Amino acid sequence: MFSEKESDAEAYLQRLEVPIRELRYVSLLSLGIKSVPTLAILDRNGVVTDLWVGKLSPLEEKGLMSKLSLEDTMSPDEWSVTEANLERKLTNKEQLVLLDIRDRAAYAINHRDGARNIPLDELPVRAQNELPLDHTIVVYGNEPSEADFAYSILDSQGFAPILVLVQNATPTKRSNN
Q1: Superfamily assignment of 76-166 in CATH?
Q2: pLDDT value at position 46?
């Protein structure tokens, strides 16, 4: 965060070698920025067109990089796993926890073999007590955005590594028990 002086902000950006065409000082609060880190994209009239608050999840980061026409710096292999790669990891007996974040009813009807169920709305409270910190957590749910949100929750609680399962239309192993 900059001081109230435009000259301090300009000097800081020049030290970072950020090219400056024009510098305007406004209070962060006037832009709707109440916490940091926050990333805001403004149009040429100074109107906030997009706003991200906090550490970005993998899908949010991917969307941002695409919006800015930049190459994504995070490889999908760092945060996601395909069905085939998951099967390989399970066959190799890697220390994994399959985490189904769907509600209890959906889990009871149909779930992956060996999966634990912690519904997404309960994850912030239950994860610390029920998931091991020394295992890879593989998250899956109904929607990619829900799994991405679960990734953010687990990441903020110190779990690592975390992978989001990229599901096929018909998953290979299911259980009804």
Answers
A1: Rhodanese-like domain (3.40.250.10)
A2: 78
